[in-house]
Amino acid sequence: MATQVDIPGYAAGTWVIDTARSNVSFQIRQFGVATRGRFTDFEGTIVTAENPLDSTVSTVIKTASVDTRNERRDTHLRKPELLSVEEHPTMTFTSTGIRADGGGLFVDGDLTVRGVTHPVTLTVDLDSVAGEPLERVTAHTEVSRKAFGVVGPLRVVVSDKVKVTLEIVVSKQG
Fold it and tell me: pTM score, two decimals?
């Protein structure tokens, strides 16, 4: 059993991502300049246990929903050498553990992109939304695109590191 942690306003239950109020975004450096994008089609569930450290998270993101505000770039990102959306229509994250460390909250889990799975750690910030049955969860991580086989033809001009930010609003079920 994990050590108990106290999170103000925390409630046990099953929570579903409110996609209209949530954002799954990324940032990568291309030609030395930050390029930002997001995924517009995703879903997920957070099951919060009595002890927050026993909770679970699972998400599914539709890779074809990539949106960088540039249709030509988005079409390129969907190709087989990058996201390969026809062969791999989804990417997933499934938590393997939640831990508190040094005043921070972290969600460890398995991220699968292009059929390749690697462990990642999300750094989490929690804010209660006063007076409403909603919770806001902000998390971020950094991953290697090459580790997941997202290489493409422009290896030199695009950085390996991708910053991922999740701004999630969930509503409690039942």
Answer: 0.89
Whether residue 77 lies inside any domain: the answer is: yes
CA atoms within 13 A on the CB side of 139: 20
Domains identified in the chain, total number: 1
**What does each C-alpha distance from 139 to 28, 31, 129, 144 come to in angstroms?**
17, 27, 16, 17
Domain coverage including residue 153 = 13-172
Q: What is the CATH number of the domain that holds 101?
A: 2.40.128.110
CA 42, chain centre distance (Å)? 10
Q: Where is pLDDT greater, at 18 or 6? A: 18
Q: List beta partners, residue 144.
A: 161
- Separation of alpha carbons 64 and 86, rounded Å: 8
